[in-house]
Amino acid sequence: MEDSSFDLELELSSLPREKWWADDYLYQLGGFWFLPQSIEGVIRVNKNFRPLPSDVILASFPKTGTTWLKALLYSIVNPSSKHRLTVENPHSLVPFLEYFDSYGKPPYESTTVVSPDANHCRRIFSTHMPYQLLERTLDSSDCRVVYVTRNPKDTLVSTWHFVNKWEKAREEPWPFEVAVEKFCCGVTPYGPYDDHVMGYRKLSLKRPKNAHFLTYEELKNDPETHVKNLAEFLGCPFEGEDVEGQVREIVKSCSFEVLSSHEVNKSEDVLPGIPLNLTLNSFFRNGVVGGYKDHLSDEIVEKIDALTREKFHSLGFMYGI
Ligand code: PAP
Questions:
Q1: Hey, which of 143, 150, 233, 235 would disulfide with 64, CB 3.0 to 4.6 Å?
Q2: pLDDT tens digits, the chain, 321 residues: what are they?
Q3: What homologous superfamily does CATH list for 31-315?
């Protein structure tokens, strides 16, 4: 059992806060910003989570391909149960570490997270928490971490659309200019984006056997190769007859077109387990690369590209423009 003996009010009162949208605040912890709905989970995961060596942890900044990777990892680790994706949302099959159930129980204490494939017995979790806050936890474990990232401009546009689907936005939409400004200064849930990406990049360079770094764009470009690489990395390579056929089937069943066509993923019902009242269909919009071109002016593109050059390119990470 985890030790939850800390005074949340006291912890929160010591954290910096900043206005994010309308009258909502974000809390700052370890240089990153968190929603009030996730900060308790983030603190508790940071204090208590001890991964098993067999655990698979999908890490990502919000809106960079989490739902897609949840579907892919679930199918790779649980090949005989992958049909569940036709009736369950990927977020119902792979829980976020930092969102606890209605009794306050963390997913890593739940017995139902264990893989349904009897011969595998692995747990898959996801998290939006930055590596900087999980460094001790992950460095002391043999678990496998998969990190997915996406170019900052598509990430920003996807975030803006997503937040404007929240119930609160019906009364007070999140203005696009505010979204751009907050994204660029890092005051966005789990931001700053670039520090988040660079944290996991550092982990993948430091411990390549334990951390696999990939981008939404490369996955879109050649999903078959990346699905095979993921399976190898997780220690469950495709075997037997017609490996190519098995890979093609997973790629297809997890594609945006197929996943978003299932009734469950078109539903306006609220996804249980995340206290943000998110509807099941809100994780699917259009899933394309470069869609930002329809939203961002040349001036904003130049502003974000300048930040990308400074934060990524100057450190040798030639990505994001
Ligand atoms: P989350 O962080 O809230 O879980 P996440 O899944 O990371 O969200 O990102 C959602 C984005 O992935 C959406 O992008 P868009 O707004 O630019 O369209 C969503 O459409 C896209 N997406 C969801 N499922 C897939 C998929 N199977 N293939 C490709 N993109 C997908």
A1: 150
A2: 666 667 888 888 999 999 988 888 999 999 999 999 999 999 999 999 999 999 999 999 999 999 999 999 999 999 999 999 999 999 999 999 999 987 888 999 987 776 666 556 799 999 999 999 999 999 999 999 999 999 999 999 999 999 999 888 888 899 999 999 999 999 999 999 999 999 999 999 999 999 999 999 999 999 999 999 999 999 999 999 999 999 999 999 999 999 999 999 999 999 998 888 999 999 999 999 999 999 999 999 999 999 999 999 999 999 999
A3: P-loop containing nucleotide triphosphate hydrolases (3.40.50.300)
Question: Atom of ligand 1 at shortest distance to CA of 71?
Answer: 27
All structural domains of the chain with their residue ranges: 31-315
User: How far is ligand 1, taken at its centre, from the CA of residue 97, in Å?
Assistant: 19
Is 161 a residue of the active site?
no
CB 125 within 8 A of CB 70: no
Nearest to 123 by CA among 73, 72, 62: 73
Alpha-carbon distance of 131 to 277, in angstroms, equals: 26
Catalytic residue among 91, 120, 128, 196: 128
Count of CB atoms situated within 10 Å of the CB of 157: 22
Distance 89 CA to ligand 1 centre (A): 12
